[in-house]
Amino acid sequence: MSTDSPTDVARRAITLLDLTELGDDDTPDDVTALCRRAVGPHGTVAAVCVWPRHVSMAVQLLAGSGVRIATVVNFPAGDDAIDDVVALTAEALADGADEIDLVLPYNAFLSGDRSRAEAMIQSVRDAVPAPQRLKVILETGELMSPDTIRAASETAVRLGADFIKTSTGKTPRSASLEATEVMLEVIRDTARPVGLKPSGGIRTLDDAAAYLEQADRIMGPGWATPITFRFGASGLLTALEAAIDGDHDATSQEAY
User: Fold this and answer.
1) Confidence of residue 4 (pLDDT cuts 50, 70, 90)
2) Residue in 101, 135, 162, 207 annotated catalytic
3) CA 35 to chain centroid
4) pTM above the 0.90 mark?
5) pLDDT above 70 coverage of the chain, percent
6) Cα–Cα distance, 212 to 215 (Å, whole number)
7) CA distance 176 to 143
């Protein structure tokens, strides 16, 4: 159990946040508001995550801030054509994206067509050169079983993912500690550095603290840094800021 104070946990979590705006009808004004929040009075988030169409705008708004720009491809259903996904990836990188969050073709993976999933990851990995990062979204709430989550994690890591991520946030079941337990075990047993991104449904300080305690237990205290660990969330920042400001009721309420 961590001995850090709620304020310390909140400040730590802010630096690990991929502040996200992926609403179906989001506007440039929404992205502007998101980017303004990325550098706040209690710390700077690790990245913002926006639709590919908003990457160039986010790059301009956050120039010089140190905040990375992430975007999503093959999102959210995971069944786009590989050539289309690679083309969108290349366009996003040309617009200035630092990180690509790729949805694993999870329906194909579940049906036994793992070669399609492998081809998608490999093709996008080839299109994302260092120092840009590739995060592979497993959609663990749909994979469900620990054995399937482990197999998907091992596939993504073997094919070069820099991070493995739980969820799109667009399905009924998103991040869970049961899923990230398996994912962290795979990361722990991997010979190269790989990061973890719990995403979807993480809305409170208590939520964030639970994932950080788990990472500290499995990977060791201090492992979770912006290079190795991210929270994908939109409302979490509100709860974290409220906890720092002393509004402790907000640490146990959902923030949207």
Assistant:
1) confident
2) 101
3) 17
4) yes
5) 95
6) 5
7) 12
The H or E element spanning position 196 is strand 195-197
Active-site residue, 197 included: yes
* Residue-wise burial string across 84-111, b where 16 or more C-beta atoms lie within 10 A, e elsewhere: ebbebbebbbebbbbbbbbbbbbebbbe
Q: Which of 18, 135, 162, 165 is catalytic?
A: 165
Q: What is the dihedral of CA 149, 141, 30, 229, to 10 degrees?
A: -30
Segment (H or E) for 19: strand 17-21
The DSSP secondary-structure symbol of 27 reads -
Please pick, among 18, 135, 162, 197, the residue that the annotation labels catalytic.
197
Q: What is the pLDDT of residues 68-93, one digit of tens each?
A: 999 999 999 999 999 999 999 999 99
Angle at 98 between CA 77 and CA 226, to 5 degrees: 95
Mean pLDDT for 196-217 is: 97
pLDDT in tens, 110-148: 999 999 999 999 999 999 999 999 999 999 999 999 999
Both tokens assigned to 222: 């201090």
Helix (H) or strand (E) segment spanning residue 125:
helix 114-127
- Other beta carbons within 10 angstroms of residue 203's beta carbon come to 18
The H or E element that residue 205 is part of is helix 205-219
